[in-house]
Amino acid sequence: xxxxxxxxxxxxxxxxxxxxxxxxxxxxxxxxxxxxxxxxxxxxxxxxxxxxxxxxxxxxxxxxxxxxxxxxxxxxxxxxxxxxxxxxxxxxxxxxxxxxxxxxxxxxxxxxxxxxxxxxxxxxxxxxxxxxxxxxxxxxxxxxxxxxxxxxxxxxxxxxxxxxxxxxxxxxxxxxxxxxxxxxxxxxxxxxxxxxxxxxxxxxxxxxxxxxxxxxxxxxxxxxxxxxxxxxxxxxxxxxxxxxx
Length: 245
Prior knowledge:
A hairpin with a 3-residue loop joins strand 5 (about 35-40) and strand 6. Helix content is about 35%, strand content about 25%.
């Protein structure tokens, strides 16, 4: 399992993903789930993945290969004229990989066994920043003022804080604080999600990544958020009126 969030703000985009791929008493692995392609001054594209690891790595591999020699390999996301067409390309590639894996599997597993979902975000010069949620079937939806953020993977534990505190006018700093609270709640509730966490912020119109970092398990700020959020919840709980019989 995994947890990834893409958020559309007035200022631009904020994206965060965990890195855990397997969880168990003696089997914990990590893998990067956030992938970025840039043409400085022309376009920035980021893809986050959740689901079957072989599927997501195959999709990212195909997309990446097609960007390295676009004259020989197509379609390339570095040639597409719009973010919408890039979402179509990623969706078609995802559908293709799932279909091929399902049809070639000797045990005749269903396509669901190779399922994956993705969040794609970015901007192409001349257009606005855009954010898409791509389904295993290859279709997708786009973020809007009514639906300004997307989650994939283990979504239920971290969603309440996003719903309550999201504000399109918030700063990148406040947005990252909000995402860390959401991730901390998820990590504490499900062993299949874990640190390190990768994040990207993107300033609208800049056409280059504003910041890109990895937050490790011993990061002082993350620890302060985790401990502070727990203390704040206990304080808020104590201030609520007691139930009366």
